[in-house]
């Protein structure tokens, strides 16, 4: 297991098919950029069933699992790697609670969604899952490029 520096923490974030079809991709990317995270991977992808099942394997016994897999494979998704200090937990805050009716206004789901089965976006729930999911969705080198943000020292 590779240990990453604190400011190189990574989260796998994905705009789900409803978010793509509703034209929310730019608004979502904008929220992560304005917070101060760095986009380190990006691709549009038609998800095959086996990848959706692997990604959500912890939910495979849930009654909604077949509908969830069908939803994620119903149209293109936007796969992203976001990097930065505390990004995993912070992304979950930017995204909001799983059920959009419980998500606070100002969060992505709170502002843009109503149905739990159409909740626009995914974000990793732990560092370990972030790295696991990046490995599932991005093959080596694909959709990524090495770059270092230009950081001015604080005044
Ligand atoms: P995600 O993994 O997509 O970021 O969502 P999450 O952690 O907030 O929620 P999780 O419990 O992991 O559920 C994964 C996704 O399954 C769908 N879901 N449907 N019909 C239902 O009752 C139900 N419950 C969950 C949602 O799309 C949720 O994001």
Features:
155 residues; kinase; alpha+beta; transferase; nucleoside-diphosphate kinase; EC 2.7.4.6; 4 strands; nucleoside diphosphate kinase activity; binds ribavirin triphosphate
Q: In short, what is this structure?
A:
One of its GO terms (biological process) is CTP biosynthetic process. The chain is an alpha+beta fold and 155 residues long. The chain has a single domain, classed as 2-Layer Sandwich (Alpha-Beta Plaits).
Written description of the protein model:
It is a single chain. This protein has 155 residues and is an alpha+beta fold. Helices cover 36% and strands 15% of the residues. It has a four-stranded antiparallel sheet with strand order 2-3-1-4. The protein is globular, with a radius of gyration of 15 Å. The model has no long low-confidence stretch (mean pLDDT 95). The structure holds ribavirin triphosphate. Residues 59, 64, 68, 98, 116-117, 119, 122-123, 125 line the site of ribavirin triphosphate.
CATH class: Alpha Beta
What is the rounded distance between the termini? 37 Å
CATH topology: Alpha-Beta Plaits
Largest sheet: 4 strands, antiparallel
What is the average of the pLDDT values?
Answer: 95
Helix amount: 25-40%
Indicate how many domains the architecture comprises. Answer: 1
Number of helices: 7
Q: Under the CATH scheme, which architecture would be assigned?
A: 2-Layer Sandwich
Which regions are unreliable across 5 or more consecutive residues at pLDDT < 50?
none
Beta strands, count: 4
Overall spatial form = globular
Question: Can you tell me the CATH superfamily?
Answer: Nucleoside diphosphate kinase-like domain
Strand order of the largest sheet: 2-3-1-4
State the order of secondary-structure elements, H for helix, E for strand. Answer: EHHEHHEHHEH
Secondary-structure class: alpha+beta
Strand content: 15-25%
Bound molecules: ribavirin triphosphate
Active site: 122
Binding site for ATP: 16, 64, 92, 98, 109, 119
Family: Belongs to the NDK family.
Catalytic activity: a 2'-deoxyribonucleoside 5'-diphosphate + ATP = a 2'-deoxyribonucleoside 5'-triphosphate + ADP; a ribonucleoside 5'-diphosphate + ATP = a ribonucleoside 5'-triphosphate + ADP
């Amino acid at each position: 297991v590779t240990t990453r520096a604190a400011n190189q923490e990574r989260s796998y974030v994905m705009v789900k098919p409803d978010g793509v079809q509703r034209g929310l991709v730019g608004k979502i990317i904008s929220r992560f950029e304005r917070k101060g995270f760095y986009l380190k991977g990006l691709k549009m992808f038609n998800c095959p069933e086996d990848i959706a099942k692997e990604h959500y394997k912890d939910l495979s016994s849930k009654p909604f699992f077949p509908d969830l897999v069908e939803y994620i494979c119903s149209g293109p998704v936007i796969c992203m790697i976001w990097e930065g200090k505390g990004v995993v937990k912070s992304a979950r805050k930017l995204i909001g609670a799983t059920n959009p009716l419980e998500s606070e206004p100002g969060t992505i789901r709170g502002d843009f969604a109503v149905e739990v089965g159409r909740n626009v976006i995914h974000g990793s729930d732990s560092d370990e899952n972030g790295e696991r999911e990046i490995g599932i969705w991005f093959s080596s080198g694909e959709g990524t490029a090495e770059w270092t943000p230009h950081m001015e020292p604080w005044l």
